Amino acid sequence: MNHLPLIIKREYLTKVKNKSFIVMTFLSPMIMIALIAVVAYLSQLNNNKARTISILDETGLVSDVFKNTENTTYSILSNISLDEAKKQVKAKEEYGLLYIGKSSDTAQITNAIKFYSEDSPSLTIISSLENKLEKKLSDLKLQQDGVDIEKIAASKTRIDIAQESFTGEKTSKVDNILKLAFGGAAGYLLFMFIIIYGNMIMRSVIEEKTSRIIEVIISSVKPIQLMMGKIIGTSLAGITQFVIWMILGGIMVFVLSAIFGIDMAQMQTPQQEMMQQAMQSPELQNEMQNVMVAFFKLPILNLVIAFMFFFIGGYLLYSSLYAAIGAAVDNETDTQQFMLPILMPLILAVYVGVFTVIEDPHGTISTIFSFIPFTSPVVMLMRIPFGVPIWQQVVSLLLLIGTFMFAVWFAAKIYRVGILMYGKKPSYKELYKWLKY
Amino acid sequence: MNDLLVANSVSKSFGDFKALNNVSISVPKGSIFGLLGPNGAGKTTLIRIINQITMPDEGQVLLDGSPLKPSHISDIGYLPEERGLYKSMKVGEQALYLAQLKGLSKQEAKERLKYWFDKLDIGDWWNKKIQELSKGQAQKIQFIVTVLHRPKLLIFDEPFSGFDPINASLIKDEILQLRDEGATVIFSTHRMESVEELCDHIALIHKSNKVLDGKLTDIKRQYKTNTFEVGMQPQRENAQAILKAISEKFEVKPATFKNLNDDLKLNIKLTANETSNDLLSFLTSKAEVHHFVEVVPSANDIFIQTVKNN
Lengths: 437, 310
Hints:
Distance between the termini of chain A: 25 Å
Mean pLDDT of chain A: 81
Helix content of chain B: 25-40%
Largest sheet of chain A: 4 strands, mixed
Number of domains of chain A: 2
CATH architecture of the largest domain in chain B: 3-Layer(aba) Sandwich
Number of helices of chain B: 10
Shape of chain A: elongated
Largest sheet of chain B: 6 strands, mixed
Number of domains of chain B: 2
Oligomer: heterodimer
Helix content of chain A: 55-70%
Number of helices of chain A: 17
Number of strands of chain B: 14
């Protein structure tokens, strides 16, 4: 008798109807967004505070670069000693005092610049001041050496090397960044999915053991059916949760941007000043177009199909191991010793993906790890946007499926024996013995 | 074909430990079969083999004449000793789920559950969660789930643990009724008084071996010692003389039993060539006899004696 659909249904409904699952599903995206909103709001509050910075420029050379913005007012002091200036700034409760000491040589000015303030100043303000000063001082130095600044500005060149493969496929830097983003997102998604829902499967196996219902169930169904039902049911619940998260996330981003959109445009922080300038440049608009073009050049069909297969294969491989761990122990605290061997290859896969695939998507290391079954789902998913030959994908997938079947066999053995074992924490040696029962 | 279940020379090892060694049992149709043995003897392993939870290393188990196969699952109802239910699932949903796993259709399961819930007067529990019920209440649900699919063979492992006397006797009556309706029951327990009360056949497993089996009355006959429990009321002055006279002729031990009179209470063992009537006529010639009963070994005595001897 095939009870698999029945078991899947129960596992799915129990998960989905569980209160903490519902709360997690609907609350966590809200909490996430609320957190982001709070942080954004707070930093906006901080940056929006109007502040005055006094400048005491004893050289008289640089003070003209400080132009007031909406939030920052620069007051230029003159004919005043440093001590008096400090007192004055403190008395007026201004943000701080920028002091440019007297120096005969422009080269020496750099060493005579100091910023005085009550509290330690914000990093963005300091770097904004530094930028202004650096630019002005290098201009001054160039002028001293008799160089025409206008000519230098005119000579600035920007280069995007156009890339083209021998088969005539055009690529660019933007393409690569987009590929990385897609591959990285797919790999990371799989990683998260395995950890979250693998744990859920493990807990549900432990729950059946501790509530002692297990013997009743397996007098009706084969342990492997129960295990597969659990894995599939929990995965479906997981997919449901993910889909809801995506929809909710989408809605919220839309709503938030509608409400705060205007506010955001008005936000004036030093970074955004720069951003806005950059946005208006024709270069960036050009880039946006490039991104769109690059997106449509991705092997989208390959990506989608490979994502489905590697995602399912990788997830099933790991979740059967999680089920085996759940069966081997009595309670969650005992799972620690078995978790490490599972997490290691996963983390390794992410590291390989992040460090080597970016550097060289078709290099030896990336290629090898995209064949090893425990790392292949993550690494291969990261490589595919860069174009992986179909035979490599197929071989890797076959290896993955083979390993998955072995893992299910292994897990089922452990599961079959483990679910009826109570009271002792098994060692690896004992697990090995169970395989032979 | 009189035996519903036959186990032929079943052996099972776990690593170096031999849990069952060449065990054979035959469970007659319509009987209540007591599967007895000290803790760790191998009873649960045998039960799990019958339920196809574990496979025997050697030997074979036949149900209704054919070797065990997956379709037999719906012919067996098993109440394990280590039992439990999904704590956060509702009673009704859970019972439906477990019944469907045993092969009932949803509709069928619903109707039968309604019948049982009415019978045990627990209809209002349908939407409660298991964790809201007491242990005894959960046991009732578990019992219903075990018998719901009307299996030919029912296996109860310590079915009365966790029940108060009222519910225990309720469940006992249900078991007897199921037997009368044609089910065969395997009953594993340490409570010898319920063995005495319910079982007509027993098998005793000790240290992985079967050491005893058969009809309970036959076994008792085997273990009887031809001893009679006697209560007499002699005249006070010749009590000593009578005791002496009996002792010369028979093997006598003092006995303890409850009686209205302040009797001479004795356990008297017959010699090989005498019958109980010989003893009785000898005794009546000495004094008035109030009490004359053959000492039948209890299941408890047999259990302890067999386990000690092995």
